[in-house]
Amino acid sequence: MVVLIFVGLVLLAHYYLWHRLVRSTTGPGRLRKALTWGMVGLFVLVVGTFVSTRMELGHLLAWPGYIWLALLFYLFLFFVLLEIPRAVAGAFLRRAERKRAREPELGAERTPEPEPVAVRVSTAAAVEDAAPVEAVSPVETVPPGAAPPPAPLTRRVFLGRATAAIAGAGALSAVGYGVPNALGDPVIERVKVTLPNLDQRLGGLRFAVVSDIHLGPLTGKAHTERIVRMINGLQADVVAIVGDLVDGSVAELGALAQPLKSLESRYGAYFVTGNHEYFSPGGFAEWIEELGQLGVRPLRNERVEIRHQGAVLDLAGVNDLNGISQGDGPDFDKALGNRDTSRSTVLLAHQPVQVDQAARHGVDLQLSGHTHGGQMAPFNLVVGLQQPVVSGLATVDGVQVYVTRGAGFWGPPVRVGAPPEITMLELA
Fold first, then answer.
1. Is residue 132 domain-resident?
2. Bond from prior residue into 378 cis (ω within 30 degrees of 0)
3. How many other CB atoms are there within 10 angstroms of residue 237's CB atom?
4. Residue 403 falls within a domain, yes or no?
5. Locate the Calcineurin-like phosphoesterase domain: which residues (predicted)?
C-alpha cells in the first residue's frame, strides 16, 4: 500500500509538471512529443532509483534519480505558488485583447466613407494605356522546400513559458544551494540544558549527539570519517548516536561504518535504532552485532550508569517504533523500570514523538533525531504535523527534548533551511 501511494503521488506530480512544462509551453508537434516522452522517462527514473537502492541492485541511478526528485519537488512547489499570479495575468491579458479587438470597430464608425469621384476617360485611350492585370491570391504561398512562418505566440504559450522560466529558475536555485549544504561539513550546535534535579557534580557533563548519518549509496567512507573527526574534536564525555545510521546491509555498507571504531569519549559511545535500521535488507540484528564489534554499544530497551565525579546519571535507550512490526519495538518499562528516581535520566529515542512515554516514566531529558529539521523547506511544516518538535530544544509534557537535524541526508543530497548538525550538549 505504501509503495502504491508513493508511485501514485510521483505519477500525479509528473503529470502536473507535464501540463505546466510541456503542454502549456508548446503546440502540437514533434517538440511536444519529445518532451512528453522525456517526462515519462523521468518518472521511470524516480521509480527505478528507489527500487534499485532498496534492493541493492547497484546505484548508477542514485545521483540522477535523487537530484531529479529534488527538482521535481521544488518545480511542483513553485508552479503551485504561481497558479494565482498566472490566473491574474491571464485575466489581464484577455481583457487587454478584448479592448484591442473593439478599437477597430469604434474607429470604423467614426471614419466617414470617402465620396466617389467621377473621372471621364476616353475609351480608346483607356484601352491602349491599360496594363495587363495579374491575379493576386489573397493568401501568401510558401515556396516548395521553404520553412513555414512561425506560428504567432498565443496568450497561453506566453504565460506558460513565463511561469516555466520562473519556476525553473527557482527550483535550480534551491537545489543548487541545497546540494553543497548537504554534502558539506555539519554545523556544530552548542547547547546547554538545565535539569532542575541534576546532581551538581554532574554539571558540565557533555554529550556529543549525532543522528541520521544515513550511510548509503550517495555517501562514501569520507562522510563517516569526517563525522568521527568532528565528534572527536569536541572531546565529549558521552557520544550518543540516536538512530538512522544506515540505508543498507552490512555486506554493502560495512566498510563505510568502519571509521566509527575510532570514536573517542570518556564514557563510551551508545546507539539506538532508528526506523531505517528496520528497512535494511540484511535485517537490523546484523547492524546491532556490527556496531558492537566497532566499539559502539547499542542500548536495546536498557540503561547504563554514567558515573561522573562521584555522581551517577542514568542513560537509557529504547528501540524505534518501526521495530514493532519485527518484534523489536520500544519497551519503556524494561528500559526505565525499577530505577532510582532520585537520579536524573537521559533517554535516547530516535523519534521525538516517543516523549509521551518518556514523560510517564519520569525522564528528565530526551535526545532524538529522525526529523532532519525538515531537510528541504518547507517540509519542516509537514514534519511538525507528525512530531512534537522539529529541531532544537523544547519542553513537552514536562520533559525537555532536544532534536538534532542529523548529520546526513535521506534521498536527495539536498538540504534547504536545515543544515546538517552535530550537537555538543552540556548538562547544567
1. no
2. yes
3. 20
4. yes
5. 205-373
